[in-house]
Amino acid sequence: MVNIGDVARMAGVSRSTASYALSGKRPTSPDVQARVAAAVQELGYTPNAGARALATAQTRVIGLLAQFYEDEFAPAMLQYILAVSNTARELGYDVLLVTEESGVQALRRITDSRMVDGIVLLNVAEDDQRLPVLRDAAQPGALVGLPGDCTGVDVFDLSFEEAGRLMVDHLADLGHRDVLLVSQPEHVIERGGAYVWRLQNAAVAAAAERGVRLLTTFASTHQPEVGAELHGLLDAHPEVTGLLVHNEAAVAALPSVMHARGMEAPRDLSVIGRYSDEFARTFSLPYSSVESAADLLGAMAVRHVVRRIEVAAARDEPYVVELVAPRLVDRGSTGVPPHVVPAAGA
């Protein structure tokens, strides 16, 4: 196994000089830094994480706490995990993915043992039991998701309220007056998934303001149940001309459902989902959508945590709550409802 002595010999410097060039704990000349870097590259040297932690009191590891719930669509969660891990790697950090059922115990274990330098929490609930532990931890942390109480934590999330209004306004502007909103399973809300009702409540309010009759319902996240549920909903509500889908499993099943019914968007039904562009490519989804911004939110959380780790002055900066404005990605799946004749020139 390659060690720091091997690097030093190839670079023509002492072990201590090679170590200083890598750690930055003492100044070294640009020539020495270049030679050491070249030796590291050629030899494939990787600093020992345990030794580095003892020397610097840092592990260069970000703890990522996430859960794969049976009632949520796993591919959607993976978008956030990928964003966190990619950004951490870009900044020179590894990621410790923790998926234990007891997030409280897991968070306390990895923070008390100093296994990580910082924390990112996913699956944030309205009354998240992990937050007291995070507030008391020595390491900085950030949330992807908005809790009920943001005190003492950095928070990054999509503005689901604006997303709900945007979806309704877009269809209302096209002349739709009968719209159906399909959300995540109801027990996601019961578990504390506030993002579901945040979007739904805003959509209901926007519909009332625009004179739109908005029907709201919940759907499964498993096949074949969700496909059968979509068929049942479309059978029960033939008057609906617009469909809003805040359920990734449902929107992934929708193309086959519409094909089986001989329906096309927007000819027969205008459709808007809420998911990432990467999710749309993965499932070849042809529907316009509000971008979930999973990649942006994951990157924002990691960059903020790393800033608090590495910049002394940042550790005492005020905590932030940043809600990303929704963006509608037009894939041509919305239009005027079938019974409305477009105005001349439209």
Short description:
It is built from 14 helices and 12 strands. The strands form 2 sheets. Strands 2-1-3-4-5-11 form a 6-stranded parallel sheet, with helices on both faces.
Overview of this protein structure:
- This protein is of the alpha/beta class.
- The protein has three domains: 1-39, no CATH class; 61-158 and 294-327, Rossmann fold; 160-289, Response regulator (Rossmann fold, 3-Layer(aba) Sandwich).
- Helix content is 45%, strand content 16%.
- The chain is built from 14 helices and twelve strands.
- The protein has helices at residues 4-11, 15-23, 30-43, 49-56, 74-90, 103-112, 131-136, 160-173, 186-190, 194-210, 225-236, 248-260, 277-282, 294-310; strands at residues 61-65, 94-98, 118-121, 141-144, 154-158, 178-183, 213-218, 242-246, 270-274, 288-290, 321-324, 328-329.
- Strands 2-1-3-4-5-11 form a six-stranded parallel beta sheet, sandwiched between helices.
- Strand 3, helix 7 (131-136) and strand 4 form a beta-alpha-beta unit.
